[in-house]
Amino acid sequence: MHPDRDPPPVAAVLVPVKAFGRAKGRLAEVLDDDARARLARAMADRVLAAAHPLPAAVVCDDDDVAVWAREAGARVIRADRTGLNAAVGLGVEELTRRGVTRVVIAHADLPFAVGLAALAVAEPTEVVLVPDRRGDGTNVMSIPTGAGMTFHYGPGSFDAHRAAAARCDLAVRVLDSGPLGWDVDEPDDLDPPPEWGTVAEPATGTAR
Description:
Blueprint: E1 11-16, H1 33-50, E2 56-60, H2 63-71, E3 75-78, H3 84-97, E4 102-106, E5 126-131, E6 138-144, H4 157-167, E7 171-174
Parallel strand pairs: 1-2, 1-4, 2-3, 5-7
Antiparallel strand pairs: 4-6, 5-6
């Protein structure tokens, strides 16, 4: 390596995953417990696959999720902090200690996730944000580590993350992506544009 050049960035994808049996409670009116668990796992499978060729890490506090993540080839980071923001912060800290210089944080409920590695291609002082299709949440975020970026998932997180980046003197690039912008929280989220296919094939246990 030329001594006057910086080393190439090392990137990874971080996916926070809730216990499959506790996921997607707002879908209870249309999907029973087993169907929601299957859907949550299927979407998480898709997100991990979309990380390729980058290494993936799963931050979780559930034994079954940890087993699933290891079987899928992902690194497991056990969360000992309460809440999504704290868990993501812990995951980023652990990856930073392991030499990762850019982390792509993707929610586990993106049924059409694809091409997450492309979001790792960014300027060293740039944050890339993918809002949900309503422009309120943050479905995917690519950040440089060590810049002091804080996490503000929840209602209004897209604007909150833009403000957090500004406080760290980081530029923001917004990527409006149809597939990455489609997450699943409410019953109407199970009806994507027909050309995309279905979120979940009808199966025993669905009440739709």
